[in-house]
What does this fold into?
Amino acid sequence: MDYKKSNAPLNTVTRDMIKLSEDTGNVYETVCIIAKRANQIAGEMKHDLEKKLQEFASLNDNLEEISENREQIEISRYYEKLPKPTLIAAQEYVDHKIFFRNPVKERSSID
It folds into this structure.
């Protein structure tokens, strides 16, 4: 996923949690949904970053031989400028791009 193309804000945004939780009817459930998605996004971003930085890993890691790699610095800067996973997850929730379900609620509605 290209996180740069996400329309999530780069800075913290104040949100009306009551309005945001209209889908679930529970503020805490909404926060839990957003938090779980943020953890998924953070894991994906970490995996992507590690995969890109593996290309620059040297076999002889010596503390004395620390060299500055321009490409490695640019990759790190790119990931630092991305919106935080919580902001991306909150924007996805607002845009209704997150599918969620509560098995407990589904089970009680069937009974």
